[in-house]
Sequence to fold (910 residues):
Amino acid sequence: MLSSAQQSFLSGIFSEEDISFSPEEICAYGGDSSRLFAMPWAVVQPRNVEQVQELLQFAHAERIPLFPRSRGTNVVGACVPQGGGIVVSSLNLNAIRDISPTDFVAVAEPGVVTAKLQSACAAKSLFYPPDPASHRISTIGGNVSTNAGGMRAVKYGVTRDYVLGLKAVLPGGQLIECGGRTHKNVVGLDLTRLFVGSEGTLGFITELELKLLPLPQQTASVLVGFSSLEAALHAASEVFRAGILPVAMEFMAREVLEALSAVTTAPWPEATRAVLLLKLDGSEEVLPLELARLSRVLELCSPSFLATGQGADEEALWEVRRLINPASFTVAPDKMSDDVTVPRGRVVEAVAGIREAAARHKLVTLVFGHLGDGNLHVNVMYDKTAGQLPVAKALKDDVLKVVLGCGGTMSGEHGVGMTKYPYFNRQIGPVERQLMRRIKADFDPRNIMNPGKAY
Amino acid sequence: MLSSAQQSFLSGIFSEEDISFSPEEICAYGGDSSRLFAMPWAVVQPRNVEQVQELLQFAHAERIPLFPRSRGTNVVGACVPQGGGIVVSSLNLNAIRDISPTDFVAVAEPGVVTAKLQSACAAKSLFYPPDPASHRISTIGGNVSTNAGGMRAVKYGVTRDYVLGLKAVLPGGQLIECGGRTHKNVVGLDLTRLFVGSEGTLGFITELELKLLPLPQQTASVLVGFSSLEAALHAASEVFRAGILPVAMEFMAREVLEALSAVTTAPWPEATRAVLLLKLDGSEEVLPLELARLSRVLELCSPSFLATGQGADEEALWEVRRLINPASFTVAPDKMSDDVTVPRGRVVEAVAGIREAAARHKLVTLVFGHLGDGNLHVNVMYDKTAGQLPVAKALKDDVLKVVLGCGGTMSGEHGVGMTKYPYFNRQIGPVERQLMRRIKADFDPRNIMNPGKAY
Fold:
């Protein structure tokens, strides 16, 4: 808890509307999309770098834990103020400072919603590629802090690949500048990339310099079904073998198709057991040709159906993908989801292992996601009121075993936060973890930044 | 110097052909492409990880400096054993362990020559995009240690973007594993990327896991001249504005064209003052269309000439680019080169500033390079025997001022090594530098790994 002296010091930094100690107001900042919760001691919403510096100087001196937060869309509890402390919201740091069509750089504060940045870039014919599914509600600061992935990662990579530079305030109040507006830069250790995916444990990011690309003129997509998972994955590898690097390559396993049929009229015939959804982009002139070429490759793989679309037709194809999460809840009322990732060639093995584990625990488990990266979303569906939570946990545990057994990672794009923290040692060795903690101590010697998270 | 006890301990780790203390033999390992030199105390060439571990345990205990080295193509002195110590050559660690067409991953030891890895990948229709100009003679370990760039960075990014995981031995002998074979991974701090560009200061890399892409079917190029630098840069921005992301976009300023005319029959007409060289890639079917589209955009920018090529014709277009370095020496016998980088939109300003500085110091200075990234190679030509070295140094200093004044960086792809070390503080603040040094101490508390380099 904060002493009244501490409260009054904080009230001197922030104007009244930017600070709250009232439980009714601040309880909304205690949870995130993980549905975990811890009550914060206070919430502050800095409007400028100076306020962030004063706050981090004070919190460092007083050893008060700080929990950076933007819109709380994190699904692994990375925003939850466990153990208590001050939630530092970036929502007032939401300016797009620059979008430069000559430098191909955007400069944004951490609280800018990613989709808003993307639209502002598109208005200048520029393209910020990373597109986590949450891009309409999550922020660029949160995306950087978790190294967010998304659909387009197959062709364009992840958030890390677009962060050229950043400014951050360290505990103690010092402002540091890492990287800059240049597209290439090799001077000293790469502090910029160290912040990417650090889940708010090193400092508070106040500004980001992001790499932009020219906006592709058009996109087109293909939805294609197969009679087995193996056939779908064979088709996926045939696409790559033809030298095609799609923007996105999503897949949905049988259980997902079944769940979807409960909420929508599926566009695929009965015998379909796995579906791929692929997106291409390019110029008006060549995109139709690329789409035809992709379709030819897929047609040779004996699909149960194949539909292509551009414009509104393309949106319709992606609609089924968006329905997966709502459809999940027709299976069971509770969901435990993961974003495990395996080497691309071991997806069949991973899905088979996950299915076996699900059968053993008798819980329906939906596997879908970013096939092009081997990044599988695994929704374990269960019923808490029927006492299935321990079963779901045991299954999650088995899923992790399968994934690590395939040379995979427990997180491809969500991060570790709180929910994967107990599993950390299964993937990362003690020497590597010790190194991470020593590096954190270099930035945050008193361990006030999002303590107990990530590593 | 090594004591005889130390020499005999080392001789117990390495077989006779893999260790030398003989000045005649080891002096070849004292320099690199920077032409700087320091005499090493010994050279060892480990054949396996165990030897590396024993060496790093011993060197840590005895506080003996180690200087990792592959083929010594570094141009900033990063391989030079200044102050003395043991050169650790990776030339015996040169196995390609795996090239997986299903995982899209290559696993290689650090001593593998980059072009060899690329050919081995291409034989399986796979593509390792980073292509530093040295790719035929430099190694993947060296490329990772300097985060090498290259021509294709405009479309494909730099070495950093392709390192999925690595193994390294730390001082003390512990082997660490960072990242892995998955294309996405967000678990803990990003130690993998911390090694990229670290110039051998953190540990000795023993294995790299690299991301591969499907091999594009074909490439095609355009060589195009303009009557002024401004017109060339305007054309470059028109290309991006049309939504075209070329694989490569090189440029050569007037002084470069003049130097080239001394060694080759230039394909451009007299009035040409700046040349762009662009490369595209794609499928057989669409590449001709993309090439035509690119040519149309360029034709609208009033070029003095335009030539396109595929296959052998394409090679011929690139031949002039390769002649720049030999041509430099027709201007003056000595060269001081830099790889400064500015924000893409400030290239005109940077080139103008560099030209002014060159005129002030009365030294011909060739500016060319990776326009698409704002990465300019600046060859200051001088004559040491005519006492011009101090003038060249003063000019280098002015070039750096111009570049930093444009929001640029002193190195886009070569790193800092020894030659840029004295300038480090001009670009990086004291807090950031202190952080880098603390991080180094987490890996290497006794500062034995490539001491006095980089940061």
